[in-house]
Amino acid sequence: MLIVLVAGLLISCATVYKFGKRYSSENVTKIIIGKTSEKDVRSYFGDPWKIGILNGHTVYTYCYEEIVFNRDDSVERNGNTLIIEFDENQQVLNYYFNIPGKEMPIIGLMMHKKNILRQQQEQVAWQNQSSAIAAE
Is 0.85 surpassed by the pTM of this model? Predict the structure, then answer.
């Protein structure tokens, strides 16, 4: 009975995946193209989640996403993304806020499928172990 109860609880729960690093998006309105510096951006948002190069320019990425895979196969997505491109003088050249991306949900789906497979394998192993104990 305990096995059935625990298995039911495991199956009924939603799976949540979190990506990125939390940051406050409240200061996005303070960004002024050509005037806001890299130093200003770091004071507004902290250290970026990722730093990259685009066409020779430094790019900061601030991203935090929560992807929830519900038992009914629905998917909920919460979070936001801020990408800031700087010019050669370390001033904001351009920025993009909340541009929907596809990479996070795809990565989340892959992790979700891997997690479900692992749970199924653990459940089978637990059932086999329980059967072996009962047979003794």
Answer: no
